[in-house]
Amino acid sequence: MKILKYVFSLCLVALIVYSCDEDDSTDFVDTASAPTNLSLLTEITQDNTGLVKITPLGEGVTNYDLNYGDGSDLVEGIEPGSFVEHTYAEGTYQATLTAKALNGDITTLTKEIVVSFQAPQNLVVTIENDPGISKQVNITATADFAMSNQIDFGDGSPVVSGNIGENVSHIYDDPGIYTITVIAMGGAIETTTYTEDFEVTAIVQPLTSAPAQPARADSDVISIFSSAYNDVAGTNYFPDWGQGSQGSSWAMFDLGGDQMLQYINLSYQGIALADGTSVDVSGMEFLHIDVWTADVVTDLETSLINGPAAATEAPVTRSLTADSWTSIEIPIAEYVNQGLSVNEIFQLKFVGTPWAAGTVFIDNIYFYKQASAAPAIAGVWKVAPEAGSLAVGPTLGSGQWFSIDDAGVIARACFYDDEYVFNNDGTFNNVLGADTWIEPWQGGGDACGAPVAPHDGSGAATYTYDDTAGTITLNGTGAYLGIPKANNAGELSDPANAPSSIVYDVTLVDINTMIVNIEAGSGVFWSYKLIRDGAAPVSPIAGSWSITPEAGSLAVGPTLGSGQWFSIDDAGVMARACFYDDEYVFTNGGSFSNVLGADTWIEPWQGGGDACGAPVAPHDGSAAATFVYDEIAGTITINGTGAYLGIPKANNAGELSDPANAPSSIVYDVTTIDATTMTLNIEAGAGVFWTFKLTKN
């Protein structure tokens, strides 16, 4: 009946513009929630009359009822934004506020109201710098016989009123010493005043770590400084190119075990790779940097320096956001377009604006390209809905203490539909829906219930899959696999103690099944069996391909698709049987192989005589290679020195004359493709177009 009453009221209002007919949806009424964040702002006139102005506040409220607590009549239907006034006799009262939502749900609040005609006494004022917000001051005042207070923050901002005993906050424009005045007020004409000269401070260092970095294959990243990846060895993060004499300095800043670079009074600072070391970033796509600063340094100029002989450099500038981490992504093309070669980067340089005036903290300096291949675990996973899929015991894989049975699987249906999502970009999500299994330590009763923060899927998280070590690391408070309480330090007894990172041991049984184990404290081993939800992602080019054994399948000419200079004929196909049985193998996991057998076609530049012969390194199939198929761009990129499609000499820079000059990456254009055939082209130097026609084996 309550719902019908509110729906009827809505229809009456809607008649002003629309008619409320039987087709109108009222689903939004059912989805409304109970009011939240209730409070009562009370202000008493200082004239010994006991007149109190009461303003109810809250979220999701349609109207309020108020019981003054002194035996007078209940006030009903107070609209949001309105206030009431009531005269109290001197005394202490318990006022009760009832807030109503659209669907009839209610929330109540009880507040003590003290009406006294004595001046406030025993005034105690606490003024503190906020530990997490720069230049914010938090003020709390308590006093006997007081109901409210007025605060003058001493910086010219408007005076603020608040309830006695409740926190009032203010953010200053600048740090410094300010005269703060607090006036405590009750029902008496007389007030009590407190004044203090207080030093407002700015937070000058990060309180949280830089954002967690996504999982990346070693071949896709060149890391200069980041705990997420393998850094280039021997790097000097403060070579001091004269900055020290300008007052600049450097330190390794440790934030709870997370180390980051701190450049103090940043003028220009450098990073130098070890002597004789440089990195070729021409195959990378972006330079990533995370930077934290207070409000002094507004811009950071980052230069790449190529050399070391005849060193050249190019700068790129990005703006910084004060008091927070700024994640900078600079396309390598921005450096190349300035004429900089990036094949021997041996130094980086940072310049601050304004010059030598502020400090920056820097983390996660690395070059990267988009993933060569999706991680083998990429996709959506669930705990297998079968007996034994959730277990714990004193040894690895044991279910001695508990192992889910068939009845338990049925009872925990809300758990078995939870999703663990490993995205291709290295991000991770817990997707739990409206309910999951909630245990007593989370405030539940071993039953289905609404997810409890932070284990509710709301946090940003990333993952790292180390297939060699057999581990998955989840980074992000509240991210988990299996059950949320099990972590590397033990089992949680309070959601607030959730760790920021958890490492699991994993075994991929096959592409669709993984066994996850974690030792949650000494001798407590949890195990989960996860299965992929849906088929594993399949690349449209996954499989084994060979050059089609027919005339015209191998050709070169001055234009795309041309065979003007050479086009294989039937006799050539027969003569090159050792070439036409070569296989180009693309796996669903993103790896690539040249499978050549005992012989292939060897040309003079390889030491052969245009005849069948043993494969010549590095074009002998020994490369550890990967591939990226970009369906939108219509390209296949082969990564790995010596890996190739068609013929090994054709590459994007020209045609090889020496096997030692094989590039680390080659991009081919896909001109046609279907389930069993595809045609590739590559411009091997200006105006030299090779064409290969392939058939799936």
Explain how this protein is built.
By secondary structure, the protein is mainly β. The protein has an 8-stranded antiparallel beta barrel. An 8-stranded antiparallel β-barrel has the order 39-42-43-46-47-50-51-52. β8 (121-129) and β9 form a beta hairpin. Residues 152-207 form the PKD domain.
Fill in the keyword field for this structure.
697 residues; mainly beta; 7 helices; 52 strands; disordered N terminus
Short description:
By secondary structure, this protein is mainly β.
Helix content: under 10%
**CA-based gyration radius:** 35 Å
Measured distance between first and last alpha carbons: 69 Å
Lateral strand order in the biggest sheet: 25-28-29-32-33-36-37-38
Keywords: Signal
InterPro entries: Ig-like_fold (IPR013783), PKD/Chitinase_dom (IPR022409), PKD_dom (IPR000601), PKD_dom_sf (IPR035986)
Protein name: PKD domain-containing protein
Organism: Kordia aestuariivivens
Secondary structure layout:
Blueprint: H1 2-14, H2 27-31, E1 36-44, E2 51-59, E3 63-67, E4 75-78, E5 84-87, E6 91-100, E7 106-115, E8 121-129, E9 136-144, E10 148-152, E11 160-163, E12 168-171, E13 176-185, E14 192-200, E15 221-225, E16 249-255, E17 258-264, E18 268-272, E19 286-293, E20 299-306, E21 312-319, E22 324-331, H3 333-336, E23 345-353, E24 360-368, E25 379-383, E26 390-393, E27 402-403, H4 406-411, H5 413-416, E28 419-422, E29 427-431, E30 436-438, E31 447-449, E32 461-466, E33 471-475, E34 486-487, E35 490-491, E36 501-510, E37 513-519, E38 525-532, E39 543-547, E40 554-557, E41 566-567, H6 570-575, H7 577-580, E42 583-586, E43 591-595, E44 600-602, E45 611-613, E46 625-630, E47 635-639, E48 650-651, E49 654-655, E50 665-673, E51 677-683, E52 689-696
Antiparallel strand pairs: 1-2, 2-5, 3-4, 3-6, 6-7, 8-9, 9-12, 10-11, 10-13, 13-14, 15-24, 16-17, 17-24, 18-23, 19-22, 19-24, 20-21, 20-23, 25-28, 25-38, 26-27, 26-38, 28-29, 29-32, 30-31, 32-33, 33-36, 34-35, 36-37, 37-38, 39-42, 39-52, 40-41, 40-52, 42-43, 43-46, 44-45, 46-47, 47-50, 48-49, ...
